[in-house]
Structure formats: C-alpha cells, structure tokens
Amino acid sequence: MKKLYIPALFVALLIEGVYIGIRWFHTGHPPIFGTFEAALSASWMLILFSVLIDRKARFAWFIIPFAALMLVYGLNFDKTGKPLVISEQSYWVWFHALFAWIAYGFYAFSFAGAVGILAKSPSFPPLKKGGEGGLKGGKGGFDLDVFTCETLLWGFLAQTIMFVLGSYYSIRLHGSWWVWDPVEYLFIVSWFLYAIPIHGRILYGWGLKRTAWLIILGMIGTMLLYWSLIYFPFSTYHIFDTEFKSHF
C-alpha cells in the first residue's frame, strides 16, 4: 500500500489543484474567503505537506483522514465563489493567508508527532535512549522528538511572518499596525499557546510528554479560537464567512 501512497497524493493534489485554479480564475482570488475555501485550502496544504515531508507515510494515519474531514466539513457550506471585499483586495492579504496555511500545515504535523510521542505509535521504528535531546532513532531510524519540535518551530515562524504581513497591511489600511480587532488579540493567544512549549523545551529542558501535551493544547486551542470568530458575535473587519454574519 505504501507504494501507492505518493502517487495517490499526487492525484489528489492535481484534482484539488485544478479545481482551485478554476475557482481562482472565476473569482479573481485564491481560496481565502469563506468556510468552504478555508477547508479547501487546509486540505490541499495538508496533502502537499504529506508529499514534501512525509513520503514514508508515518503520519498518514492522522493527516489524510484529517484532510478529508476538513474537506467534507467545508462542503456543508456555501460553495458559491464570491469576490473579495475592497479591504481584502491586496497581494499582502494573499501572502498573509498563504503563511497562515503554511503554519497550519506545520502545526498539523507537529500535532501528529505529539500524539505519536504520547501513544508510542507503532508507525515508528524502535527508539533507544540518546543524550539530553531525548529519544533517538537507531541507525537509519526516525527521530520523532526532533521532527515534532522542528515542525513546531517552522509553524511558529510561519505564524509570526503571517502576523508581520498582516500588521504591515494594517498600517497601509488603518494607519496603525494594531487596531485591537478581535482577530488580533485572539491571534496573540494562539501565538503564546505555541510559544510556551517552544521556550519551555529550549530554555528549561521540558520533557517530551509535557511538550507534546502543550502542542496538542496549542492545536486544539487555535482551532477553537478560529471557530469562535465564525460562530460567535465578535465585531471584526476580518470577514471569514458571510453565511453566519457580516463583520463591520
């Protein structure tokens, strides 16, 4: 089955990619507007990351079902292509969204790695004790600890770049890099949720299990914060989905 894993991923990438390209052509913007487009981008990004960093299908048990569930979830919403509002018609918004999805891809793999650490998943080769860095794979093995922490760091970097790009565009749009929009302070909460395990692991030598639990908390917390912006009556100039409300 593993021999078919990468070809199957390429087929899925191609099908979704063609659909995204057609939709982009008709709407005039990448899939960044509305719940359906968010789910489409999320699933495509997870499949792309699987091709790039998980060619041996170590995390397929989580990533592929999760990508499929995201797509099924999005199909329950309005799939009509809509133009972006004037405030979002900028390449800065496009790159802001791009780095958001890159961060999401890395965080998803870090989450899967954290679950693997806690569950001692049989998908990984036997591990033996190493130095202070944690558990090391044997010869030719896979270092789950390093992979989980590296994807966490890359996700944190992408999330930080996303914030910098958004802040710069906010200056161009509002004249200030910070306008106390709910998206901004909920982002800070999410950012700190991931900053805590990174700093705890690097500066204080926190163990694998504590770090793994905090990574899982970060992923769950970030998703709940994102959904709160859609389903709860926050007033924000960020428009995530017009099916539930309009933001002003």
SSE layout:
Layout: H1 2-27, H2 35-53, H3 60-75, H4 91-119, E1 127-129, E2 135-137, H5 144-174, H6 182-204, H7 208-231
Antiparallel strand pairs: 1-2
Helix pairs in contact: 1-2, 2-3, 2-4, 4-5, 4-7, 5-6, 6-7
Summarize the structure in words.
This protein is mainly alpha-helical and 248 residues long. The chain is 68% helix and 2% strand. The chain is built from seven helices and two strands. Helix 2 packs across helix 4 (91-119) and helix 4 (91-119) runs antiparallel to helix 5 (144-174). The model is unreliable at 126-139 and 244-248 (pLDDT under 50).
Terminal Cα separation, in Å? 50 Å
Sheet having the most strands: 2 strands, antiparallel
What percentage of the residues does DSSP assign to strands (E)?
A: under 5%
Total of DSSP H or I helical runs spanning 4+ residues: 7
Quickly count the domains: 1
Short description:
The chain is built from seven helices and two strands. It has helices spanning 2-27, 35-53, 60-75, 91-119, 144-174, 182-204, 208-231; strands at residues 127-129, 135-137.
Task: Fill in the keyword field for this structure.
disordered C terminus; two-stranded antiparallel sheet; 248 residues; 2 strands; mainly alpha; globular
